[in-house]
Predict the 3D structure of the following.
Amino acid sequence: MNEATKTKLLEKNERLIDMVIERAKRDFPDDIAIIGLTGSFSTGDFHEKSDLDLIIINNTDRGWEIAYCFILEDVGYDLYCTPWNTRIQEQASLDSPAVASLVELQILYCAKPEYLEKFKRYRQQALDALAKPVGEECLRRARKWMDSAKQEYAGTMLAEDIGSVRQAAAGVLYNLVNALVSMNNTYIKRGVKRYLEELVMYPFVPDAFESLYMAVIDANTVDEMRIASLNVLKSVAQLYSSMCDRFIAKPVPTFDNLKGTYEELWCNCRNKIINSVDTNDKSYAFFAALGAQGFLDEMTAERGTAKFDVMQYFDAGNLRVLKEKFLEMIDEYAAEYGKVGREVEKFETFEQLYAEFI
């Protein structure tokens, strides 16, 4: 881009900015708090058809009336509002992909000094979060994006036409980008155009990530899209799992945190599995096993108990194996109580229970 074209673009932007600020001052003095510049014109990474990215922070619903979409000289513009308690808060807590719009915003207009102070508090909240080392907090944020990527992958398998499969594959990649951003406790600084350039510079990215990333984009058939989506998803999932092992302290069973868990397992799972197997009710047994697996997994994650695999023993043609193995697991879980010095709350008579409970 030559200097004359660049100067013309910047002059046009100045006129647009002045126009928006003029309208805010005239019609929305109490409704619009702050107007700022973000995006390519903020970073300098713009081209001849780049639009102007303005962040308009509104105090009230009436402030939305300033929103306007238009085309000027073959360039599209969308003026929209960013409320404090939704988008700004999400950016401050790093739960939004648009963190750069908060931490790097160039303030162009502020209606009152207290609004600027409020903005600075939100910005500082984000900066404080970004200054923390990689750990449980950023991995928690990444989990949300990982779950969304898995849902999109399901979409690649359920869709049939190539456009829908490609859209779902793009969704996989988009969510994994944001997962990696969270896993590295950072934010995208230069927008969608520079995703890959930024990602490959992070300390925590899967091996050969660039080729996995581009395989999704280069895929031409439904099968290629599904395979490429699965490969990149698995690579990030494996990295996520290894980072959780490294950075999140595992819980340890204690006298207090195991209280009632064995009895709950007995109450909600034991007799259901016994009854379903004894009556040869395959559907009942299947979902009873699922419930038991879910409870035991929760105990492993939250209380630090041993890992149990119930579902591997479900065989619709031989339910007895499920019952036998699950009863063995019940005994093993009781041993967890013994290790921390806790006794099972079990009574032979009502009178014994009454005496203890009352």
